[in-house]
Amino acid sequence: MIEAVNVFKSFEDKEVLKDISAVFEKGQTNLIIGQSGSGKTVLLKSLVGLHEVTKGEILFDGRSLVGLNSKQKKALRQEIGMLFQGSALFDSMTVEENVRFPLDMFTHMTEEEKRDRANFCLDRVRLENANNRLPSEISGGMQKRVAIARAIALNPKYLFCDEPNSGLDPRTSIVIDELIHEITEEYGMTTIVNTHDMNSVMGIGDKIIFIYQGEKYWEGTKDDIFHVQNKQLEDFIFASKMFRQIKEVHK
Ligand SMILES: Nc1ncnc2c1ncn2[C@@H]1O[C@H](COP(=O)(O)OP(=O)(O)OP(=O)(O)O)[C@@H](O)[C@H]1O
Q: What does residue 104 show for φ and ψ, rounded to 5 degrees?
């Protein structure tokens, strides 16, 4: 479980996050949603420790990110998997080398153990027979699978995903969403996904935090979302004609 407790983040005199408190549950896909510029990425980066918060606390299963010494921070980093926008693969490395990279960096596993672990992760994302290909030789959806395999290589407790569907077609987006959702449940990870994709919200939103102009305006599940009485969230959801029509059906 990850908790944000009264988190504020400013850049010089610009306050981007305003008093955000939220609990992100273990074994669940927790989504941060909101319009472009609302502060989702800044919140995600603050949670993961890439931004230092101006005020407030981030707790990883009760461990405060702020209070950790550098050794403890390094240990915590190894419990975190990250999936970035794009896929952030290393272009000059093969698929297998990309997945092995965190194992090379952070473990003392033998070559054989690393190969086995990389193969296990590639199988898990249903990507067989691609080990020796370069990222440029595979599709965007396959690249995303490699990125997921790399993110879970160290068997993380926490998984952070920044816009995992950016650049993917709707069908591939669903496959990637479902994969993230499945592995979250299977490995009991605390997963936080930053998205503005309503299809993701309806597909995998176990828990949803809605951010508006840097403040938390709403939280709930995908099943609650059609019953909200919150103008800002309604404007966000029903910006799409399709979702306005779905709402009519739910009435
Ligand atoms: N390093 C920074 N310095 C100053 N301002 C920043 C910095 N990073 C983000 N901001 C500002 O914080 C606000 C929120 O940005 P953020 O990237 O979190 O939005 P977002 O909700 O993730 O948007 P998008 O969906 O478009 O990615 C924006 O006004 C942005 O300009």
A: -65, -40
**171 CA distance to ligand 1 centroid (A)?**
28
Per the domain annotation, does 43 fall within a domain? yes
What CATH number does the domain containing 234 carry?
3.40.50.300
- Probe residue for ligand 1, chosen from 13, 31, 33, 40 as the CB with the greatest number of ligand atoms within 8 Å: 40
Q: Are 30 and 24 in contact (CB under 8 A)?
A: yes
Q: What is the ipTM of this complex?
A: 0.96
Q: Domain range spanning residue 47? A: 1-79+192-251
For 15-37, write each residue's pLDDT tens digit.
Answer: 999 999 999 999 999 999 999 89
Distance (Å, whole) CA 207 – CA 217: 14
- Report the distance separating Cα 176 and Cα 182, nearest Å: 10
pLDDT 10s digits, 125-148 = 889 889 999 999 999 999 999 999
The DSSP element (H or E) to which 217 belongs, if any, is: strand 215-220
Longest dimension (CA), the chain: 59
User: Does residue 188 line the site of ligand 1, with CB under 6 A?
Assistant: no
